[in-house]
Amino acid sequence: MTDRKDELAANLAKVERRIADACAAAGRGHEEVTLIVVTKTYPATDVRILSELGVRHVAENRDQDAAPKAAACADLPLTWHFVGQLQTNKVRSVAGYADFVQSVDRSKLVTALSKEAVRAGRELGCLIQVALDAGESARGERGGVAPAGIEELAALVAEAPGLRLGGLMTVAPLTGEYAGREQAAFGRLMDLSTDLRRSHPAATMVSAGMSADLEQAVAAGATHVRVGSAVLGVRPRLG
Ligand SMILES: *Cc1c(COP(=O)(O)O)cnc(C)c1O
């Protein structure tokens, strides 16, 4: 193995161990939690190594970086998640490679994603990004819709051609009542997911938890954790 492959294999093993321990502590099965490796700022060669090491889900947050990377890795059996704030002028590109868009937070985006998914002949899984630091009807600083806006957006996604409602996603807030209270924040997301599943039973995905707080997310009931730096290393620049 190359040095990089050794390094990524060791990091992956550590992260899988953390997930396994968190599942055991919560009385959950390890298979209930899917690891998504966030490869933003890292090259396609790393994505290829991760695929060789058995990773099946990767995530990116900027279309400019993600589009060429996904093209370079088109031969690999990977599911691509888009997790960044998304401008409508990037939707056509994203709809060409993403399997899931986890950052759906406004109706205009739903309309654009639907149109481009149909055009590309693809079905896009959509997660509603929830901002737990937003005011009741506002949007979050880093994207996301306030809890009060989930139902309306979910109904739009569920009815939109080319889209499938997957569930909910959040990022632990840095401000507001949940700042520094990751487990409470993720618990709130679980409650919102329970509400959502009353009208959309198939929308079972709960995407929460990153390198620093994946244990809290697993404890709260997350089905998907998004882990970047704990697998790939600390990013050289903000992304
Ligand atoms: C970068 C990013 C992650 C991963 O963060 P790490 O702290 O590197 O694990 C998860 N989710 C989103 C939305 C991100 O942008």
TrEMBL record:
Transcription is among the record's keywords: no
CDD domains recorded: PLPDE_III_YBL036c_like (cd00635)
Cofactor names: pyridoxal 5'-phosphate
PROSITE patterns: UPF0001
One of the Pfam families matching this protein, by short name: Ala_racemase_N
Alanine racemase N-terminal domain span: 12-236
Keyword Magnesium: no
Entry's Gene Ontology molecular function annotations: pyridoxal phosphate binding
The entry's keywords: Pyridoxal phosphate
Annotated InterPro entries: Ala_racemase_N, PLP-binding_barrel, PyrdxlP_homeostasis
Positions of post-translational N6-(pyridoxal phosphate)lysine modification: K40
Stated family: Belongs to the pyridoxal phosphate-binding protein YggS/PROSC family.
Function of the protein: Pyridoxal 5'-phosphate (PLP)-binding protein, which is involved in PLP homeostasis.
Protein name from the UniProt record: Pyridoxal phosphate homeostasis protein
Organism: Streptomyces coeruleorubidus
